[in-house]
């Protein structure tokens, strides 16, 4: 088997001095789609934040896309994040510019220079999420589901080895959640690896996949019952 994209061994997740999760052992491989579930406050976001370098890993071992989380330096974080695509519940689009400019902004910030290639890449990722014709719109001219598609397109720009989606459907109605989930399923089928935190059990039942649960300061795999 190839090397894991994500591997945590006996890791502990802290918020400041507060232990949120202990003894975390998780592995993910290329092409996996893994859910992270758990009640509110059980540590899903803290887990995600540790993976993208927003919280330090101080106990246990953690490797993610070839970075060692335990010895991650401040200067490594932008480079780590280039290998990850992070999607948030509240989309986090820049409201003062169009969809195209939101995406071009990220490309510029991550070192792209060639305008022709940049425009082509923007068009390519928008096509992947079914938003090719909406690049000229401002975020406020889009529905929540469309904004989340753009956020997913933004996450795809630098061809990430792992997509971390923290409650990506949390602000969306059930029908729109399914549409966004279809996008995530499509990109997973095309080879992208995805870790998705959610408390939307309807989605889990509709799109069953490996599921990790945060509960009582631990993370463990749960086996879904067949419907
Ligand atoms: N910035 C912070 N400083 C201190 N403690 C925090 C902070 N953020 C979260 N916590 C605490 O860490 C624990 C885990 O919170 P976390 O946000 O990771 O849970 P969650 O499962 O993602 O919840 P939700 O589904 O509501 O987002 C909670 O007890 C919370 O109060």
UniProtKB/TrEMBL annotation:
Pfam entry (one): ABC_tran
The entry's keywords: ATP-binding, Nucleotide-binding
SUPFAM superfamilies in alphabetical order: P-loop containing nucleoside triphosphate hydrolases
Ranges for domain ABC transporter: 6-225
Record bears the keyword ATP-binding: yes
UniProt GO molecular function: ATP binding; ATP hydrolysis activity; transmembrane transporter activity
A Gene Ontology term for the protein's cellular component: plasma membrane
Domain of life from the UniProt record: Bacteria
Record InterPro entries: AAA+_ATPase, ABC_transporter-like_ATP-bd, ABC_transporter-like_CS, ABC_transpr_LolD-like, P-loop_NTPase
Family membership noted in the UniProt record: Belongs to the ABC transporter superfamily.
Function, in words: Part of the ABC transporter FtsEX involved in cellular division. Important for assembly or stability of the septal ring.
Name of the featured protein: Cell division ATP-binding protein FtsE
Taxonomic source organism: Snuella sedimenti
């Amino acid at each position: 088997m190839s090397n894991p994209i994500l591997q945590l061994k006996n890791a502990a997740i802290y918020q400041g001095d507060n232990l949120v999760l202990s003894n975390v052992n998780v592995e993910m491989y290329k092409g996996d789609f893994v859910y992270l579930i758990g009640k509110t406050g059980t540590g899903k976001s803290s887990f995600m934040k540790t993976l993208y370098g927003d919280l330090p890993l101080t106990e246990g071992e953690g490797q993610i896309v070839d970075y060692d989380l335990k010895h991650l330096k401040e200067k490594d974080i932008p480079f780590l994040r280039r290998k990850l695509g992070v999607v948030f519940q509240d989309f986090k689009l820049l409201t003062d510019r169009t969809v195209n400019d939101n995406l071009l902004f990220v490309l510029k910030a991550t070192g792209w220079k060639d305008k022709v290639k940049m425009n082509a890449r923007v068009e390519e990722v928008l096509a992947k999420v079914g938003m090719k014709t909406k690049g000229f719109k401002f975020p406020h001219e889009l529905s929540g589901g469309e904004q989340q598609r753009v956020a997913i397109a933004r996450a795809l720009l630098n061809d990430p080895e792992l997509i971390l989606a923290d409650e990506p459907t949390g602000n969306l109605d059930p029908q729109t959640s399914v549409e966004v989930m279809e996008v995530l399923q499509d990109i997973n089928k095309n080879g992208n690896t995805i870790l998705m935190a959610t408390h939307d059990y309807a989605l889990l039942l509709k799109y069953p996949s490996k599921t990790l649960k945060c509960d009582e300061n631990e993370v463990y795999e749960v086996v879904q019952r067949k419907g």
